[in-house]
Amino acid sequence: MSHTSYVSEATLRRLPTYLHLLRTHHQQGAEQVSCSAIGKELRLDPTQVRKDLEVTGSVGRPRIGFPVADLIEAIETFLGWNNVHDAFLAGAGNLGYALLGYDRLKDYGVHIVAAFDNDPRKIGTEVHGRQVLPIGRLESLVQRMHVRIGIITVPADHAQTVADRMVAGGILAIWNFAPVSLRLPQHIIVQNEELYYSLAALSRQVGDRLRSPREKGG
Question: Among 11, 98, 172, 210, which residue's Cβ finds the most Cβ atoms within 10 Å?
């Protein structure tokens, strides 16, 4: 079965969850898994699970399910996580520090090889084994090292300038944590981590949950 040309964002967000569960099952010695079992553990409709997994080219067998190892490989290949890509990170503040220390990013296809900042106190230091370099060297090093992924963790008012440097050097994909919309050429892939929007949604749901009992009680 060929991969579908369009994959919804919801499916893309669920695939890593399936992968995490499957890796756990594999470590425990499981050889087969069904959509029903996955759906039960993740509280999802098994039909939705099957449709999500089909985009990877995997087709389970009736009453048997999927070989766990093959399904893991299919999801990793579909997401590009079995092919680690080097990345540069701009912004060695608190969030950048946390990402540099998160070794499991390699499990998801990204290896941060260097960090950049404009703070003289940070330049020349090491953060989790990566040297912090002057932001002015970003463009030339992107070109020299053929890095194609950039991660932005700088304040909003510096994000566009940093993104422009990345694109000028040859970056093709940007993982943006700055709370700002970047103006970039159409061929650039941008993934915005809208932490504030997620927090707003969370806060609203908490508020609704707290108001609900009082409203029911009259």
Answer: 11
Q: Which among 39, 62, 79 is the end of a domain?
A: 79
Whole-model pTM above 0.85?
no
Using CA atoms, how far residue 215 sits from 59, 200, 204, in Å, is 47, 22, 16
Contact 71, 58 (CB under 8 A): yes
pLDDT of residue 213: 62
Give the distance, in angstroms, between the CA of residue 22 and the centroid of all CA atoms in the same chain: 18
Of the listed ranges 58-62, 112-116, 131-135, 171-175, the least confidently predicted one is: 58-62
Residues 112 and 38 in one domain: no
Q: Angle at the Cα of 139 (from 173 to 187), degrees rounded to 5?
A: 30
Tell whether 73 and 91 lie within a shared domain. no
Q: Is 165 helix (H, G, I), strand (E, B) or coil?
A: helix
How confident is the model over 46-63, as pLDDT tens digits? 999 999 999 999 888 887
Contacts of 46 (CB under 8 A, 6+ apart): 34, 35, 36, 38, 39, 40
> Could you list the residue range(s) of the whole structural domain that residue 172 is in?
85-197
